[in-house]
């Protein structure tokens, strides 16, 4: 993971043993200010060890971090305390083994935060039924509560982070997927 910085603090993700951590450091001194860990470990011969996605810090100082195994967290940037947490694989009923073979380098998509939502890549595992609950390119959660607000798209994810943009005068979330790029309505997730 790279660092996201705000107001003299730098936030990143790290793997230490069996803990996937979101950590906050003082920019000037390098001193660890806080860390928040969950027990999970991403490790493959091809992809190496640890999380890849850079956390996102919103204008209120909340930190949104998407771990390599699909654990999305909202953390209070002032205290390091978890506000809410979601497991993307559980949200989409994707077996861990299927996700590991479909997303071989781990989830590396940084959360997109705008208005009152946090958007992350969803995905699906191979050999799963072609029913909508397994096919979601993007998931949007309420920024404050973590409640699922919308699901959008039907393509397998890639490693790029979703971005907010305006195309043809329409604000949309742009997603680079495994086989195509899609634009999603920023309010509903519709392609």
Could you describe the 3D structure shown?
The chain is mostly beta strands and 191 residues long. It is built from two helices and 17 strands. It has helices at residues 88-91, 96-102, and strands at residues 4-6, 9-16, 19-26, 32-39, 43-44, 48-49, 56-57, 62-66, 71-76, 82-87, 112-114, 117-123, 136-142, 148-152, 163-167, 170-176, 181-185. The strands form five sheets. Strands 1-2-3-4 form a four-stranded antiparallel beta sheet, with no helix packed on it. It has a four-stranded antiparallel beta sheet with strand order 7-8-9-10. Strands 11-12-13-14 form a four-stranded antiparallel beta sheet, with no helix packed on it. Strand 2 (9-16) and strand 3 form a beta hairpin. It is globular and about 45 Å long. The protein starts with a strand and ends in a 6-residue tail after the last strand.
Ordered list of secondary-structure elements with their pairings:
Elements lengths: L3 E3 L2 E8 L2 E8 L5 E8 L3 E2 L3 E2 L6 E2 L4 E5 L4 E6 L5 E6 H4 L4 H7 L9 E3 L2 E7 L12 E7 L5 E5 L10 E5 L2 E7 L4 E5 L6
Antiparallel strand pairs: 1-2, 2-3, 3-4, 5-6, 7-8, 8-9, 9-10, 11-12, 12-13, 13-14, 15-16, 16-17
At a glance:
The chain is mainly beta and 191 residues long. Helices cover 6% and strands 47% of the residues. The protein has helices spanning 88-91, 96-102, and strands at residues 4-6, 9-16, 19-26, 32-39, 43-44, 48-49, 56-57, 62-66, 71-76, 82-87, 112-114, 117-123, 136-142, 148-152, 163-167, 170-176, 181-185.
């Amino acid at each position: 993971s790279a660092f996201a910085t705000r107001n003299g603090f730098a936030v990143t993700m790290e793997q230490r043993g069996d803990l996937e951590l979101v950590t906050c450091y003082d920019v000037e001194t390098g001193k660890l200010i806080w860390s928040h860990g969950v027990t999970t470990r991403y490790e493959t011969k091809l992809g190496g060890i640890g999380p890849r996605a850079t956390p996102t810090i919103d204008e209120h100082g909340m930190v949104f971090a998407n771990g390599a195994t699909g654990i999305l967290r909202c953390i209070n940037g002032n205290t390091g305390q978890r506000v809410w947490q979601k497991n993307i694989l559980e949200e989409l009923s994707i077996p861990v083994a299927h996700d590991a073979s479909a997303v071989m380098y781990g989830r590396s998509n940084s959360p997109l935060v705008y208005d009152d939502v946090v958007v992350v890549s969803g995905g699906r595992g191979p050999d799963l039924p072609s029913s909508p609950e397994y096919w979601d390119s993007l998931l949007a959660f309420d920024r404050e509560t973590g409640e699922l607000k919308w699901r959008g798209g039907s393509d397998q994810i890639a490693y790029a982070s979703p971005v907010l943009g305006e195309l043809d005068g329409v604000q949309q979330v742009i997603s680079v997927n495994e086989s195509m790029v899609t634009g999603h309505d920023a309010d509903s997730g519709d392609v």
